[in-house]
Amino acid sequence: MIFELKGKFKPYVRMTQASKWVRPDAVQYLASKEDIGRQLVQQMAANDWDMLPGQTPLWVSISIEHQGGFHNRDLDNELKAFLDGANGIVYPDDRWIDWVKVERQRGKENRVRMIVELAGEDGKD
Fold first, then answer.
1. SS3 letters for the chain?
2. What CATH number is given to the structural domain containing 36?
3. CA-to-CA distance for 116 and 1, rounded, in angstroms?
4. Confidence (pTM)
5. Containing domain of residue 109, as a range?
6. What is the rounded distance in angstroms from the CA atom of residue 64 to the CA atom of residue 110?
7. Which of 20, 62, 96, 97 could form a disulfide with 26 if both were Cys (CB 3.0 to 4.6 A apart)?
8. What total number of domains does the chain contain?
9. pLDDT by residue (tens digit) across 49-73?
């Protein structure tokens, strides 16, 4: 499955159950996660894709393109935002992701290309 996501996205932020409703960065992250999920749901429906099966090893490749600078955020938190956004939509549980490739670069617009596939028998295709 290949997804093309557009827009500015907020990287993952640590939060508690109480702080997620009051800390501005947590509220922004949760709204961004919802936007990622909305775009994934739309693309799943448009392509007539079903959620990948549970308890099945997966691999994920993510390419992040930013307008302007991007070294003011951690790449691992950006990755987590997209993996969390896809959880329960593209796959039932991100604990089954065994291989990840992620890259980021400057671009003309803010967009993300996300590829999610079933892993081969060795854990990678």
1. CEEEEECCCCCCCCCCCCHHHCCHHHHHHHHHHHHHHHHHHHHHHHCCCCCCCCCCCEEEEEEEEECCCCCCCCHHHHHHHHHHHHECCCECCHHHEEEEEEEEEECCCCEEEEEEEECCCCCCC
2. 3.30.1330.70
3. 5
4. 0.85
5. 2-118
6. 8
7. 20
8. 1
9. 999 999 999 999 999 999 877 777 8
